[in-house]
Amino acid sequence: MAARVYGQVADMRASPKIHSCYVLKEVERFKPFTTFMFTDRPIYSFHSGIPVPPHLASLSLKRFWTGDMSNARVAAELESVQPGIVLWSNDSREVPFQELLSQKYQLAYIDEANRLFVHKSIIKKVKRF
């Protein structure tokens, strides 16, 4: 039993840590120029210190099933709030706000797990500094 516990602890210590991932370092560059970020993994919002818009903070399946939220409403909320940073999983899923991303955001960072989009106005501000 002690060997099993030792093995599990060793695996946990070797696993990647969210607080030290490179995408958070990229988010930190844009943090002074934004008030909100939108992400499908709220733990990144917590570690970066940038809040998610309140109406979009919890997008559970229950909200979609009951009709409280829909893909069109998510896109409309994002259009009205226009968060400075959008951090999304790097997978092949189509997002309901893809048109907004292509018009008003620029891809600032990509890796095997993440796609970081930054509002074009913020990109201009960062390039000046």
Secondary-structure map:
Blueprint: H1 2-14, H2 22-30, E1 37-39, H3 42-48, H4 61-65, H5 71-81, E2 85-89, H6 98-104, E3 105-110, E4 114-119, H7 120-128
Parallel strand pairs: 1-2
Antiparallel strand pairs: 2-4, 3-4
Please supply descriptive tags for the structure shown above.
129 residues, four-stranded mixed sheet
Describe the model:
The chain is an alpha+beta fold and 129 residues long. It has one domain (18-128). Helices cover 47% and strands 16% of the residues. It is globular and about 55 Å long.
Widest sheet, order of strands: 1-2-4-3
The share of residues in helices is: 40-55%
Tell me the number of helical segments per DSSP (H or I, 4 or more residues long): 7
Q: What is the alpha-carbon Rg in Å?
A: 17 Å
Strand content: 15-25%
Query: What is the count of structural domains?
Result: 1
Structural class: alpha+beta
**Mind describing the biggest β-sheet?**
4 strands, mixed
Shape estimate: globular
Give a brief description.
With 129 residues, the protein is an alpha+beta fold. 47% of the residues lie in helices and 16% in strands.
